[in-house]
Amino acid sequence: MQWSVRDLARHIDHTLLKPEARAADVAKLCAEALEHQFWGVCVHGGRVAQAAALLEGSDVKVAAVVGFPLGAMDGDSKRYETEVAIDLGAQEIDMVLNIGRLKDGDDRAVFREIRDVVEAAQGVWVKVILETCLLSEEEKLRACSLSVEAGARFVKTSTGFGSGGATVEDIRLMRQAVGSALGVKASGGIRDTAMALAMLEAGATRLGTSAGVAILSGHAAAVGEY
Questions:
Q1: CA distance 108 to 112
Q2: What are phi and psi of 160, to 5 degrees?
Q3: Structural domain boundaries, residue 35
Q4: Angle at which helices 137-150 and 107-121 pack, to 10 degrees?
Q5: pLDDT band per the 50, 70, 90 thresholds, residue 226
Q6: What is the CATH number of the domain that holds 203?
Q7: Residue 18 a catalytic site member
Q8: Does 61 participate in catalysis according to the annotation?
Q9: Is pTM, for the whole model, over 0.90?
Q10: Residue 213: Cβ within 10 Å count
Q11: Into how many domains does the chain fold?
Q12: What is 111-161 written as a DSSP string?
């Protein structure tokens, strides 16, 4: 598929999740998202209100991370975090599943936690972060199945804080697992145009990256749009 710069931009969540990020950094993130018309920005809950105010009236969405980056806290905490983020203006939720519970084989607990966040989101899209670098193939498939069953709208590879990020192989596996039922978000280590396009060709429908501007610039040069 030949991607236009505009189409590529609309598949990118422009991301800033560094713990040391300041208000000026969030303002720059939002300005870049508006300039390039990215699908959305992805920020910590404590920056949602600022991002929502800066992007008010635009088509750029605000996504908040929940249970980030470990996913190991009690599920009620994730539910509350979701409710607060939405009250502050979040339009999508990226939640980290409980990796240890999944590895325990406690599918009931994992399902219930995802379902509770989906319910707390009240129709706002929920993306479930699997942290694929920590999972076996069987665990990745089980996590995808539980996400579908619990009503999530996306499965997502990585937090970007683990030992590895998105791979083409994982995107293909996740797309096969969820079929057309869910979106698949590739995140973690996507820093150039070639990698971004490879993820989309493998079945990703969203890219989470802090390198969105560079990715678009590289693609624009390649296709001669700028």
A1: 6
A2: 90, -5
A3: 5-223
A4: 40
A5: low
A6: 3.20.20.70
A7: no
A8: no
A9: yes
A10: 17
A11: 1
A12: HHHHHHHHHHHTTSEEEEE--GGG--HHHHHHHHHHHHHHT-SEEE---SS
